[in-house]
Every structure is written in structure tokens, then in C-alpha cells.
Amino acid sequence: xxxxxxxxxxxxxxxxxxxxxxxxxxxxxxxxxxxxxxxxxxxxxxxxxxxxxxxxxxxxxxxxxxxxxxxxxxxxxxxxxxxxxxxxxxxxxxxxxxxxxxxxxxxxxxxxxxxxxxxxxxxxxxxxxxxxxxxxxxxxxxxxxxxxxxxxxxxxxxxxxxxxxxxxxxxxxxxxxxxxxxxxxxxxxxxxxxxxxxxxxxxxxxxxxxxxxxxxxxxxxxxxxxxxxxxxxxxxxxxxxxxxxxxxxxxxxxxxxxxxxxxxxxxxxxxxxxxxxxxxxxxxxxxxxxxxxxxxxxxxxxxxxxxxxxxxxxxxxxxxxxxxxxxxxx
Length: 330
Ligand code: AKB
What we know:
- With 330 residues, the chain is α/β, with parallel strands linked by helices.
- It has twelve helices and 13 strands.
- It has helices at 32-43, 58-61, 74-83, 97-102, 104-125, 158-177, 202-213, 231-242, 263-270, 285-291, 300-306, 314-329; strands spanning 22-25, 48-52, 66-68, 88-91, 128-130, 133-134, 180-186, 188-190, 215-218, 226-230, 253-255, 259-261, 278-281.
- The strands form three sheets. Strands 1, 2, 3, 4, 5, 6, 7 and 11 form an eight-stranded parallel beta sheet that branches. Strands 8-10-12 form a three-stranded mixed beta sheet.
- Strand 1, helix 1 (32-43) and strand 2 form a beta-alpha-beta unit.
- Helix 3 runs parallel beside helix 5 (104-125), helix 5 packs parallel to helix 6 (158-177) and helix 7 (202-213) runs parallel beside helix 9.
- The protein is globular, with a radius of gyration of 20 Å.
- 2-amino-3-ketobutyric acid binds at residues 96-97, 134-136, 159, 188, 195, 198-200.
């Protein structure tokens, strides 16, 4: 039958009478440790395996397994999936937008070759696989306010190009091989764990630097509006999305967001807690990246199809960040 390749069958190998076994790659980045905490609370400590190629802190070792995993080593990944009987793979390893521009060949290896490895692995072992995408998957030709789920995507960073590639390859593997691929496009994520090498990092750095030195030099112009969300919302979107039955998903890739703000708006909210905070502006190459990204993200499809709802707005996000960063400082 010529058309048999078009058939979609969703893999159900993990139809579980037990908790899924989950592997998180790039687990020591901005989202990994907190994501592991949330999943361990729901599925048990031993069922969530955090992995990375960098040395773990005491905290990352504290409540469950941590192992070395290099996403460029396919055989090594196979071993892990077999030995730990992995069902779900959460693939966080990636070079972010700003740092990717500083080392394009490395970004190609990590973001594209690494993703080829994990997607092939997921196909071979019938894993559910989650790969985050980003507002960075859009570019100057995309509508910026609002940016819908399906529109022109012509990003101008290697990070964005690699994420569009991941979205398309994931969708293709889903339709062609029945791979249970899931992808959320996240906005800038604000967390007390620092990110590294992103364009939206200012919105995290200002809390850490601002609360300690009462000064912050911002590398974006004061009027640069970008979509954002608090880490708690980001992880609850991820958790909810991972658990949606396949029948409810109208697509494999969804925009999610909570709010949009400019540096000026964030700083004036933060000044309510730190009145003597001094801000200066010195835009650099990251301004160009931000100017080509969405300003307002349309996530109405996620809200409609699987009930996505955010909890934190600008005011409650700032309140919670100030509290957490102060707690970590003392
Ligand atoms: C970045 O700034 O590169 C990331 C992102 C929005 O994907 N935080």
C-alpha cells in the first residue's frame, strides 16, 4: 500500500500501571532542577533521573538520581534508556539565543545534532518526548503583536533556527512514525535559578544584582516588550501538557505565555520593593535579537485545547521573586 507511510499510530508502550520513568537532559540548566522536583513529587524520587555533562551541586543530588549523560553520545543514551527503563524524555539541553550566536558550530552540534539523537532514541524505544521551543522560533517576518500559533517563522538566530527544525522534525516523526512528540513554545522564563546566555536573562539578573548592589545595567532598551512567565507557571504548563491524552491534542506544538512587559515596566514594579534601585541602560547585540521576537504571544489554542491557564501576573511574579531571592541570600 503506497499510502501506508501516512498512517499515524501513537505509541502506547508506557500505558502505565506504574509511574512513568523520566529522563531529563540538560538537567542543570534553568528549568531542570525545579522540573525534577515537581515530577518527583508526582511520580516518586527514583522515577525521575536528572542528567547533564556538568558537575552537580549538592542540591541537585539531594532528592533523586543524577547521572552523566552526553546528548551527543547516542550509544550512551541508549544504555541509559535501557538500564533505567525510561518511558518519557524531557530534553532541555540547548545553547540559548545570545550564547548560540557566540559559538554557532557548537550550537549546531548541541541544538541540532543532539536533538537528532534524542528524537531517534525516542522513536526507537517508543518514548514520549518533550522538547521545549521558544518565542525565539519567530523572526522579523512574523506578526509580533500578537504572534499566533501558526504563522511565518523565519528566525535570525541559530537558536531559533534549531528550534524551528526541532518543531518540524518532531511533527514529521509524529505523522510518519507515530512518535509521541510534544513541544511548548515558552516565552522568557523568570526563576531564582539563573538562566545562561539568553536574551530575556535581564528579567532574572535584575533581581539578583538589584537586590544585592541596588544597581542594574540593562542591555535592552527600556521599551523592549517581550512575552514572559514565572517558572511555576512554566512548569505547571509542562506538567499538564505531558499528561494530556493524545486525543485531546489538536497539534504537537503550542504557544504558552502569561504576560508581556518591557524592562521599564518590570523595574518600576521592582522599585516598589527596592525603592533605592538605580537602573541604567546600555543596549548590546541582544537588543537586535529581542527586536525581532514576538512582543505579545497568542496562546489561545493551548487555552482552548487543553485548558492552559497562568497564575502569576507581573505584580505577583515580582513579589514571589523578591521573597525567594532574599531567602536564598540569607
Ligand atoms: C532566550 O532568551 O534565549 C530564552 C528564550 C526566550 O528562549 N530565554
